Amino acid sequence: MSDTPSIPPPSEEPEQKPSSPLSKEGGPAADGPVRTAAPTAVPPQHAQHAHPSPQHQQYQPWGPPRGATPPGPSPLSKLTPPAPARVTLPTLWAILATALLCALLFGGGLGLNLLIAAVPAVLAAGFAARAAGRRLRPWTLVWALGGLALLAVPALLDAGWPTFLAIVSALALTAFALHGGRGWPSVLLAPFGLFHSLGTGTVWAWQGMRERAEGSRGRWGPVLRTSLVAVVLLVVFGALFAGADAAFADLLGSLMPDISLAQAPWRLSLFLLGLFGAIAVARTGAAPLRWDRMEVGQGRSRGRMEWALPLVVLNLLFAAFNAVQLTVLFGGYDKVLKETGLTYSAYARQGFWQLLIATLLTLVVIGLALRWAPRSDARDRTLVRTVLGALCVLTLVVVASALRRMDLYVDAYGLTRLRISVTAMEIWLGVVILLIMAAGVFGARFLPRAVAASAAVAVLGFGLISPDALVAESNVDRYERLGKIDVDYLAGLSADAVPALDRLPEPHRSCALVDIDHQLRPDDDAWYATSWSRDRAREVLEDRKIHYVLGSCVLLGRDDPTDSEDPYDSEDPYETEDPYDSEDPYGTP
């Protein structure tokens, strides 16, 4: 027999008294009535088996309540793509090339350097997408080419605001190309996917680089030695040839960026910016967020009268307003101005902003109506198309009226950056309304992509027309017709306006160009960090020098485009009196 004491089976164990709420262990009392039983002595050799300690008891998690369904996948889990394929060597080289180009080419200005640095980033995304098995689709090619075309705007123009619009639009088109999808969630939320890939892409690229390094340790040494020898030879012989010939030194200086030690922190920041930006683009190309899986629930259909009656009333209001506007558009301004008591320019200025807001609100109303309008049978669909189609047509008349008012305002006070911007926006809103009307006839399948493409074309066209040059042309033509000009405002334009301002007579020409000439005076811009417009402006100013005399521009007339009234309507537009008309302007005895 064994010396180990035998343990009785559970059925033969004596009944134990349940613990009370004030027991030493502090555990809760058992449910149900408490049974009292005489204490039974437990042999010492069985104590450790009869009363196991709490740390030896197995933890049992709480189960779900009765009747509860287990939680399903979160909404974000539907958008998360599967793990991307391992980063390839061409992708890593393209990412590194993007970072190096950003560090070397940026820092002195914008021009072709944006387009040059964007090419390897696009290649990195292409290599990553190909490794993941993604196919190139027609719309992907359209978005990619459109983004590269927008990056040509900084290479052509000097003005910062069209350049900013072009860069932002190029990033948006890049996001469209990488994510795909055709619905509104894909179009509106695709740019946010690039930020999501910034964090996950860093881990993805680091893991892939480590795997590549471990598998090819023997090949890195010769590559690094060869590169180091090539760099040393270029630096040594380049410095010798630059010292031997001044022309070669100038050529080498224009081609090579400034890589002095003083600019090391700035170059490092640009390197990191290009590195993480290229990683985010490549990671998105490999495994983008699936915005097309986002489900947008249909709105609850309203009753026919509940949604149609307000729109019919709105159509009647638009029709009444447009009836007056058509009278004005066909030459009835004299009567309208006589009844309103407003001046010619005040009437034009007063209504434009209200009409612009009315156009935006109309798009919101159309979107809500399409969400709530019933479409169960053919009669409902016909009623929706009729009511909303009439509203779109009436809104186009409002757009035409707003553009006509802006035209009058420009005739009265001249063209400015703000006025040309809001005019371009109003024209694009009219295009959007036309696209909505086309979607009502041919279907709304391509409406999100068509709206996004129209916005990109509008930004590209807005940049190619050179807004600053157009503002200068309009104001110079107005000066030749009316003799009115705001030299102070034109002096704040960019180098794009130089050819038009060069037509002004002196001293207006020199007063308008002196600040621009001062900005263009450092003629050491690198070929990749300047624009064609700046080079052309330098040529114009070299042919005809600036003849600026200190204080001469103060005597010029100023047509302030921000004045509420035409400053030429009276001798004293500000309704002030000259304090020096009397001998004692201060009224002292």
Write a short abstract of this structure:
The chain has 589 residues and is an all-alpha fold. The chain has 22 helices and no strands. The protein has helices at 47-50, 75-79, 89-105, 112-131, 138-150, 153-156, 160-179, 184-215, 217-244, 246-255, 264-286, 304-329, 333-340, 344-372, 378-413, 417-442, 447-464, 467-482, 487-490, 498-501, 508-520, 532-543.
Features:
589 residues; mainly alpha; 62% helix; disordered N terminus; disordered C terminus
Describe the model.
62% of the residues lie in helices and 0% in strands. It has 589 residues and is an all-alpha fold. The radius of gyration is 37 Å and the shape is flat. It has 22 helices and no strands. Helix 5 packs antiparallel against helix 7. It has helices at 47-50, 75-79, 89-105, 112-131, 138-150, 153-156, 160-179, 184-215, 217-244, 246-255, 264-286, 304-329, 333-340, 344-372, 378-413, 417-442, 447-464, 467-482, 487-490, 498-501, 508-520, 532-543.
